[in-house]
Amino acid sequence: MSAKTAPTRAARAPAPADANRSGELETFVLVAERGSLSAAARRLGVSPSAVSKVMSRLEARLGVQLLQRSTRRVLLTAEGAQYYEQGKRVLADLDELETSVAGQAEPRGLVRITASTSTGQTLLGPLIPRLLAAHPGLRLDLSFTDQVVDLLEAGVDIAIRWGRLPASDVVARLLGRTRQVVVGSPEYLAVHGTPVHPGDLGAHLRLGWNYRREVPRWPFEVAGRRIEVDIGEIVRVNDGEVMRRLALNGAGLARLSVYHAWDDLLAGRLVPVLEPYNTGDLEPIHAVYVGKPGRLPPRTRAVLDFLQANVDLRYAEHTPGPAGG
Predict the structure, then answer these.
(1) For residue 278, which of 59, 124, 257, 295 sits 20 to 30 Å off, Cα-Cα?
(2) Strands annotated E in the chain
(3) pTM for this prediction
(4) Which residue, 169, 158, 179, is CA-closest to 306?
(5) For residue 229, which of 197, 257, 261 has the smallest C-alpha distance?
(6) CA distance 34 to 74
(7) What is the β-pairing status of strands 282-290 and 170-184?
(8) CA–CA separation, 41 vs 146, rounded Å?
């Protein structure tokens, strides 16, 4: 009898009965997208060593190296890149299958949301009890900061953001718009006078923002032409509530959203100025997230749908009172 020719490549052993292949695949895709084991571990809420063990177990089971590890980041091998691209499609198909089977099942699980401090207090705070009553299976992790966070790096599902959005890979849902208005406290105006033309601002104290992409100019419309006035801020802040309180305390004039200043304008604690020159610009408020709209987990989609249905800012598109636009 002639000897059988040895196979050129050993057959891969079948997966053990207790192998969590979908979990391993999800972890691998997360590592590939974040570029490091520690970033993936933060997103999953586990230790980097736990993620490393999962990757080692996956590579051992497949019999190929998927990742090239360094002290700071990981890179995909050719096999890893192939596994990542096809694995993403497998996970997307699995999500679609589960969503289809689950139908209208109650969304469950943790949703991480970030917003500015003032937005958390005034917009999200009153809505949270109603959201939890509508979806009792949800758990919420709320982080309030006036710094713009990286959703992927921070492991955030939804961020509430004001203003025009820069080009990025996030998807946005419009929640509403609000008018901008220059305001001062009655006490400040009594001491410094009320500006009647944008050219008068040079004689006033102005409050501004210190965000990196914030332009230190206020727009006005004069004789049908849009102009921008360099405000030369006396105080710069990065917190909307601090800005509001500075204006209330008479520190200077501020350009605030009608949404944030609504109660103060109605009560006369803040007075709108230069309204005849207001451009009428409406600042948008979005709920942003990463991912494809049709592939969202039910828990994230439930929160987005709730916010879009229950946030009503139409009142904030106009300045209240006789001076309003």
Answers:
(1) 124
(2) 67-69, 74-76, 109-115, 138-144, 158-162, 170-184, 207-209, 217-222, 225-230, 235-237, 254-257, 271-273, 282-290
(3) 0.65
(4) 158
(5) 197
(6) 9
(7) antiparallel
(8) 25
Give the alpha-carbon dihedral of 301, 27, 169, 103, to 10 degrees: -20
Cα distance between residue 286 and residue 284, in whole Å: 6
d(CA 122, CA 144): 12
**What are the tens digits of pLDDT across the range 26-62?**
999 999 988 888 888 888 888 889 999 999 999 999 9
- Angstrom distance (rounded) from CA 300 to CA 302: 5
To the nearest 10°, the Cα dihedral for 129, 135, 139, 142? -50
The residues, ordered by sequence, that sit 6+ positions from 146 with a Cβ below 8 Å of its Cβ are 116, 117, 238, 239, 240
